[in-house]
Amino acid sequence: MTSRRIDDAVRRVLDGGRLGPADALVLYTDLSTNELGQLADAVRAARHPDRIVTYIIDRNVNYTNVCVARCNFCAFYREVGATDGYVLGFDEIFAKIDETIAVGGMQLLLQGGHNPDLPLAWYEDLFRAVKTRHPDFKLHALSPPEVIHLSRLSQLPARTVIDRLVAAGLDSIPGGGAEILVDRVRKHLNCYGKATATEWIDVMRHAHEAGLRTTATMMYGTVERPDERIEHLLRLRELQDETGGFTAFITWSFQPSNTELGGVGATGVEYLRTLALARLVLDNFDNLQASWVTQGGKVGQLSLAYGANDMGSVMIEENVVRSAGAAYCMDEVEIVRNIEDAGFVPKRRDMQYKTLGDPVFRERQVPRMTALATARDAGDTSVPVELDRYPARSLAGKRRQSA
Amino acid sequence: MTDASWFEAVGDKLRDGVSLSESEIAVLSETRDLVRLGALADERRRRLRGDRATFVRVAEATTTDAVEVGVPRQAGELRLAGCPATDSLLLQSVREAARIAGDVPVSGFALDELVDLCRRDVARFDDLVAALRTEGLAYIAEARVERTEDPAWVARASAAGVPVARWTVCDQAADGNSALQRVARWGGDAAVPALAPLSRTLSEKPSTGYEDVRRVALARLLVDNIDSIQVDWRRYGPQLAQVALTFGADDIDGVSPGDSEEHGTRRSTLGEITRNIRAACLVPVERDGRFRTLRTHHQ
Questions:
Q1: Nearest residue of chain B to residue A301 (CA atoms)
Q2: Residue % of chain A over a pLDDT of 70
Q3: Any CB–CB contact under 8 A between A3 and chain B?
Q4: Where does the pLDDT of residue B269 fall: very low under 50, low under 70, confident under 90, or very high at 90 and above?
Q5: I need a surface site. Which of A13, A21, A53, B207 has the fewest CB within 10 A?
Q6: What is the C-alpha separation between A388 and A385, in angstroms, rounded?
Q7: Contacts A262 to B, Cβ<8 Å
């Protein structure tokens, strides 16, 4: 019986049909890893017959680690008033942008904690300042839960928050904070409060309607069941049918070290199977990224055989996954080497997945990078002067401002 | 041309026990269709080894610090690294290692090191290996393919009472296929239980994931006279070692014997290795350094 159901589901994929939840589940749980990979690779090849694999040079900057959301799977956040909590100053962010441009980058992926002392005006001022200095530099910033946090903080509708951020210079929204878009799971992960599944989807809908393109993500490997991973994918597919606003999908596994939730991480084979399944279910997504930052360079490269057509970002800096124990690094030279070794053609892209050209290091000399930078040097507890321009909401922030 | 039908034809040949041609091997070595290559190797692995994946927990020590380091009770093998400069120091290191190892099999050394130590004198080699056996050496840890000019030394070691545990490919930059094909030619005479096809030495330019699993798959497909294709857990990490199990490998070597349960049993080394094997849809079977089954880790 199972064998026939597998055959039917495989046939449906090969015929270009759409997988329903039952088909997807039987492929995910019962098809061998090699067969699942072959199917995903066939779908990837049909969608990207030119054998181009893209990547982006950008920097992953976390502007603050202070967060009131308290998700139990997160090793990065610090509570309000914590001695090792930080907010980056505008000048620090400008310096990071300059460094990014120096190695051929043209975008910041800017995300951070839900810091009650950073009002909407702080983001607007930052975005305007960045665009004044570098009009063509892109801001891929503020995942849906951050937008919701700002909506609550400012008592403005999420749609208005997005409009104001776009007016200040926001170019696109990253798909972070999706975790698993099933409220049962979100309650277990203590992230239901920061955004329900429907709220996350709604922010993305607003963003797409405002003309922004966004990415979509899935963090698996906590408390969810296989059918809930599939429900997550189906919700994304449904919104993509409606708006067409997602440029790409990225999945990664929960990194348990130093988190309140703890436990163990999912394995490499589970990652490749999940990626392959996503390629089959998300039949209206053009691009799937490899998550080398969580899986390491080798499994990251193998992702290209299991449905991925993009090696993600050179990243330059990373703080969140590192907090949970993973500290992989690949600079542009290494990413290109991995793409070519797998038999693909590397091309730089922007966030819209528009091809920008060949590798920068083949056009001019750029410094090699052997480790990802961090938000700040250890022990740096400085507080940016411009924070005093914004009224603090937290008791700790008010005390700091009155001192 | 490497479409699905080409792979099916190659699969049929392998199932029928027909050797692959040079041109077919060349195509497999260069194929971009990595997952189909893996599927061929996986099918062959399952036919030969079923759904078992073995692993061994290895305590590693140098010939001078084995006594100091000791042998954790979970170890299935004590492996000595390095090779003393004289016969007497060599025998002494094995004697001391065997004393602290108790029932745990002791392995060590590379075959070419012992051959060099004996200045290629056959009689001296036989005597040395016999003495090593008397002192408690269960296996010579490796025969390095690139440094083995004559496989007869492997057979001599076995005849003298200490067989070689595995063929290893030590040079990453070397032509891996050439090494595999040499092993395939030698394997029948030499009776070595395992082949570790991934490089044992670090290189300035690390291998890629594609290179690694392709090498593993080719080892399974080209070398049909050796039971186990091994991947080293410590050198290659849990992620790559696990994926290699779906590309023809069937044995995980070098698992750490340290098994602190400070963070719970699921996060212990044993929990991690068994979870990884099960997640690759295989049954974890723990073995010792003599390739004897110690325990099947049922769910």
A1: B209
A2: 100
A3: no
A4: confident
A5: A21
A6: 6
A7: 263-264
Q: Are residues A201 and A160 in the same domain?
A: yes
Instruction: Answer yes or no: do B242 and A268 touch at CB < 8 A.
Output: yes
Closest residue in A to B273 (Cα) is A267
CA A39, CA A16: separation in Å to the nearest integer?
11
pLDDT tens column, A283-313: 999 999 999 999 999 999 999 999 999 999 9
| Cross-chain CB nearest to A267 (options B242, B264, B266) | B242
CATH number at residue B63: 3.20.20.70
> How many structural domains compose chain A?
2
Residue contact A268–B208, C-beta within 8 A:
no
Partners of B268 on chain A (C-beta within 8 Å) are none
* E strand or H helix that includes residue A214: strand A213-220
Q: Are A113 and A67 in contact (CB under 8 A)?
A: yes
**Helix spans in chain B (H):** 4-15, 22-30, 34-49, 66-69, 87-101, 111-117, 122-135, 152-159, 176-190, 209-222, 233-244, 269-279
Indicate if A51 and A98 belong to the same structural domain: yes
Q: Do B209 and A269 touch (CB under 8 A)?
A: no
The parent domain of residue B257 ranges over: 4-296
In chain A, which stretches have pLDDT less than 70? 1
Which of B36, B243, B266 is closest, CB to CB, to A302?
B243
Q: Residue A86's domain spans which residues?
A: 36-402
Contact list in B for residue A302 (CB cut-off 8 A) is 34, 209-210, 213, 243
> Are residues A7 and A149 located together in one domain of the fold?
no
pLDDT tens sequence across A8-25: 999 999 999 999 999 999
DSSP string, A124-139: HHHHHHHHHH-TT-EE
What is the percent of chain B where pLDDT is above 90? 72
Both A225 and A372 in a single domain?
Answer: yes
pTM of the model: 0.95
| Edge-to-edge strand ranges of the sheet holding A172-173 | A59-62, A107-111, A138-141, A172-173, A213-220, A246-253, A287-289, A310-313, A52-56, A345-349, A355-357
Determine whether the interchain pair B42/A34 forms a contact, defined as Cβ–Cβ distance below 8 Å: yes
Chain A CB contacts of B245 below 8 Å: 269
Quickly list DSSP for B164-190. B-EEE---TTS-HHHHHHHHHHHHHHH
- How far is Cα of residue B9 from the mean position of the Cα atoms in its chain? 30
Q: Judge: B209–A263 Cβ closer than 8 Å, yes or no.
A: no
Residues in chain B: 299
Residue whose structure tokens are 């329903």: A20
CA distances (Å), B165 to each of A105, B19, B137, in order?
A: 50, 25, 11
